[in-house]
Amino acid sequence: MTIEAPFIGVSRHRIGIDGDGVTTLAAFHGCPLHCHHCLNPKCLGPADGLPVFTPEQLYEKTLIDQLYFLATGGGVCFGGGEPLLRPDFICRFRELCGSAWQLTIETSLNVPLENLKAVLPVVNALIVDIKDLHPDIYLRYTGMAIDQTLLNLKHLLEVFPRDSVVVRVPLIPGFNTTEDVDWNKQRLVDAGFTCIETFRYRTLTK
């Protein structure tokens, strides 16, 4: 069976944004969340007209930068949208690129646990955009319950190197406060995460 997926974009020569070294961001279409300030709203719209790649086609498209990847310890970051909706694609891509490329996943983690388990053996790092750990804030902002995300965070702590997980905690105007961000950060530290980034969403109104 052919594996293929629509993408909202493929962006080359990114440095210091999506993991180590020089990276190419491959952003999947599709996301389970409906965040109020979605950073990539195109991922929630129709897929008509978007480029569709198989893992083989995406590998050929990204192979042009292999020298950069190998020289800098970089590779491909799968984002979106939600890349963990496409575990078969990511696993097949690893078979094609081999072990030398760094594969990073940028995810909300609000996906079935089996999707996460499928990709962990083939990826090097995860960037988790956690939104907010308060269940009510999370629900208001994303339109989804946080339970699955919490389950997946727990699994990461149990089986994946903690220094290979970056958890991003945003200050979201109109939804949480600096005190909430501090509370989130402390809760993550207490759980055992070691790489936590905080930042502020820039919106049209705030």
Question: What secondary-structure arrangement, pairings included, does this model have?
Answer:
Blueprint: E1 5-15, E2 22-28, E3 52-53, H1 55-62, H2 66-72, E4 75-79, H3 87-97, E5 102-107, H4 113-119, E6 125-129, H5 135-142, H6 147-159, E7 165-171, H7 178-191, E8 195-200
Helix pairs in contact: 1-3, 3-4
Give an overview in words:
- The chain is α/β, with parallel strands linked by helices and 206 residues long.
- The chain has a single domain (5-200), classed as Aldolase class I (TIM Barrel, Alpha-Beta Barrel).
- The protein is built from seven helices and eight strands.
- The chain has helices spanning 55-62, 66-72, 87-97, 113-119, 135-142, 147-159, 178-191, and strands spanning 5-15, 22-28, 52-53, 75-79, 102-107, 125-129, 165-171, 195-200.
- Strands 3-1-2-4-5-6-7-8 form an eight-stranded mixed beta sheet.
- Helix 1 crosses helix 3 (87-97) and helix 3 (87-97) packs parallel to helix 4 (113-119).
- The N and C termini lie far apart (47 Å).
Task: List its salient traits.
33% helix, globular, TIM Barrel, alpha/beta, 206 residues
Q: How many domain modules?
A: 1
Rough outline: globular
Distance N terminus to C terminus? 47 Å
Give the low-pLDDT segments: none
Strand tally: 8
Q: What would you say the CATH architecture is?
A: Alpha-Beta Barrel
What do we call the CATH topology? TIM Barrel
Assembly state (oligomeric): single chain
Structural class call reads: alpha/beta
Strand content: 15-25%
Largest sheet: 8 strands, mixed
Quickly name the level 1 CATH class: Alpha Beta
Rg of Cα set: 17 Å
Q: How many distinct helices? A: 7
Helical content band: 25-40%
Sketch the topology as an H/E string, one letter per element: EEEHHEHEHEHHEHE
CATH homologous group name: Aldolase class I
Q: Order of strands across the biggest sheet? A: 3-1-2-4-5-6-7-8
